Amino acid sequence: MLTVGIDIGSISAKAAAILDGFLLGSKVILTGYNARKAGLAVMQDLLAGLKLERGAVDRIVATGYSRNNADFAHQAVTEITCHAVGAHFQDPEIRSVIDIGGQDSKAIALDNTGRVKDFAMNDKCAAGTGRFLEVMARALELDLEAFGDLSLQADHPATISSLCTVFAESEVISLIAKGEGRNNIIAAIHDSIGARVAAMARRVVIVEPVMMTGGVAKNIGVVRALEKNLDCTVRISEYCQVNGAIGAALLAARRT
Amino acid sequence: MDMFQTFHDVCADPNDYARRWKAATGGKVVGTLCSYAPEELILAGGALGFRIIGGSSAISKADAHLQSYSCSLIRGALDDALNGRLDFLDGMIFPHTCDSIQRLSDIWRLNAGTGFHLDVVLPVKLNTESARDYMIAVMGKARVELEKALNRQITDDDLQQAIQTCNGIRAAMLKLYQIRQASPGRVAGRPMHAITRASMIMDRHDLLEALTGVIAQLEKQPAPGAASGKRILISGGVCNLPDIYGLIESCGGSVVWDDLCTGSRQLTGPIAADGDRMAAIADRYLSRAICPAKHAGVTARGDELVKLARDSKCQGVIFVFLKFCDPHAFDYPYLKKMLAAQGIPCLLLELEEQIAAQGQLRTRCEAFLEML
Amino acid sequence: MSTQSPPDHDKARRKIKAVKKMKDIMMLYYIDAKTADQNGKKVAWITSGGPVEPLIAMDVIPVYPENHGAMIGASKMGADLCEKAEAMGYARNLCSYARCDIACATVNGGPIGGLPKPDMLICCNNICGTVLKWYEVQARFFGVPLFILDTPFNHTDYTTEAHQYIQRQLQEYIVFLETHCGRKMDHDRLAEVGRLSIAGQRLWQQVLDMAANRPAPMSAFDAFFHLSLIVTLRGTQTVVDYYTELLDEMKTRVAEGIGAVPAERYRLLWDNLPIWFRTRWLSERFGAHGACLVADTYTSSWAGSLKYLDEDDFLGSMAEGYSRIYINIGTDQMAERVIEMVQKYGADGLVLHSNRSCKPYSLGQYDIQRIVQQQMGIPALLIEADMNDARNFSEGQIETRIDAFMEILKAGKGAVC
After folding, report:
1. Of the partner residues B59, B64, B355, the one whose CB lies closest to the CB of residue A162
2. Closest of B178, B186, B234, B191 to residue B348, by C-alpha
């Protein structure tokens, strides 16, 4: 059985294809302003790359913020459920998932079958989300790619105390003006996001092992900051960004 | 040496001070979050009353118990407790204060593990006979429960001695306030803040001695010249940011008096020397400068504030209270109106304990002082 | 492609008939209140948990700024009035009922052109400390006498000294009313009003009990609506008659198998005040998933004191009855009551409205959630919003949370997600 999962977020759209329980491949594109189009496009791109026809796909499940716009999908399931299923597929030992997306972050407690037991979300403000890192990278005139590595090179990490992204940016600018070392500021930024997400995550009972998913998991600085603030090891996989789409594709296969 | 050094040292690390006090005396430490906690009972029980003001670090665990729309005082305090930073406490006393403290008490009791837990549900009304009788009954009960918790008797003699010490402390603090009001330069904002903060933490006998010493030194000083700086009265709730005083001073203001929970409001009302000890204590808590979470008439606080403003000859009032503090936020509009009727302008600064957005506060203070 | 509701063939039968009668009664009640001075009657503003029976016994018309607040929220006029209050200097984090009412009084806003001016204010702080501040504001604004019934908080016990304090205040309350109404209290009348109050509360409890049936003939959203009378006119025959009729209708619905939600598959318990400006939307979102909110902790509060009230000594039992209400007790005791309700109504899950405006109700919810989950093993959904201020409501996010929660429930019942 061939199924496709599509995760349409506010910033990027992801697709994953599962054939008889195996991950065939995945794709990521920017969402842009038309979520439905992006959902279709990422699926088509993925299938083309795998040399598969649309007709070969048995079922499609859509997830993410714009899941309900994907009328070509057979079902819409929230990203909470999908991330749990995806993480379990990648690593059946996982009991907690922390997903940091572009505009929100969530903590999910799952059981040993990958089912969600409880979840908590921060969807009210940018602090603790990918947006926070973007704003800060821009303030420091740096590429997001290098950001994480640089944070680990700090010798004396500074502190940012503002809870609000906008005010935190002002703090960063003050630190720059005071001549604080660039890497130390970057470390502060990463620690800040780690602390905010950990505080939110504690609303759910965190049981190890913990996996971090979402695009921000590619940032090693955030992973380390999260480990420090949660006081545990955090596992990541190369498929962290497409984890939601993987979960969606798996769920699509559960209904015949 | 700076005559205020003792106080600065205590404030540098209050938790550490408490630990050292315990080690040195073998005594017990009782935590409180409100100036309506019965100081005299704690002291009579031989314990150290330790006022917790907010937290000492960024919040990590309290968010799992308190929503973000609660004030940073309760979130910070709970976070300290949950992270074991208050492990020196033998117990907590929670007098009834506001809705937030009320619920914090329950959450604390269920999660904090800081020793014994006493709820002292004082009346909200302070101006009726039945409220007075209830206050006396509740204080009496608190005494009995504290005896059990501290595992010792609290005799009438103990009470009398504690009352004398507390009266002495309050009188000394008020003297300092008066010295400052007469010539603001003599006691700047920062040391005054350190003194008031230390007064809620220090061994009360050491405190009285230190205060007496400081007053003697100040009185020996030659009469200062004309005071500079515009005369400012600070009014509000809990303030743990000494920077506020420094900030106002650097903008050209002088703080001549304060109407703060963690300031002068807890200093008012000496306890009568005679009569039933518990009734005398209760009377003091009924008649001291009122907190906005209590009621003694619909304009009680406004009347008190106007009187303070006039007596201190201030040129402006700066309101300082925490974001998410409901009782203070409800009072602010009418207090502002009553002061405006006296021709006294006001500024409002809403703060959060762990954050000091210096630039914004500075701009507002400067602009306000320029206006006066 | 959001979850669509299947077509409801029984839609007409599903409508509750008593609704029209309630609307008529409430309209007459407000007309009465607004024309009080023309009829030589006095008007008292009173808090929703306040002791209304003595007012009824003195023929004083009770008016509830909180009930009015709910009307403002339901009419979607809340955000606007809140903004006006903020312009007056009231901070945005203050209770939205208070902000709405304080602003409303100055502009006679809201859906009925404002409340009639009070002749007196009766404030009981068993629900929160905010009402004290709110009523102080209104006492200054209207320049009328204010009576405060101070019911000390019951962290773990209801103490003897608190009992005595409240008893004495109830006597002071009667003296206050006698002074401001210019006549003596008729204690026989008060006793009769007390009996009617208890009868009304018993009927309200029986109405709510009907939702223990499967399918539930009414939901919490219905209860939010039918609540008005037991809050506002408790102690009158009108209330007894209305709930008798409503109870009969519920019994009929149970007999005919008419549920509030077509194809009820999941039963949920709601905690905290309603989100007044979105009750319909919420009802539909849950309904589309086959979920019925069968009970809630808010409406059941107006029958929660029955165990303390004595119909042969109403005045004597009022102190305990008014003090030991759901939000005047410790968080752990609240969790116990929630667990009782989960068991009684067969709830599959808990929906917690984290209401920015109400600290006594909302702070402690995280602990209640944990306690209930540990003991009952049921999932919980947290909705962060406000009862009246629509600016604190994010539709997209809340929809996602509801969907995610329902996915958990469905998986729990073996449904493939």
Report:
1. B355
2. B234
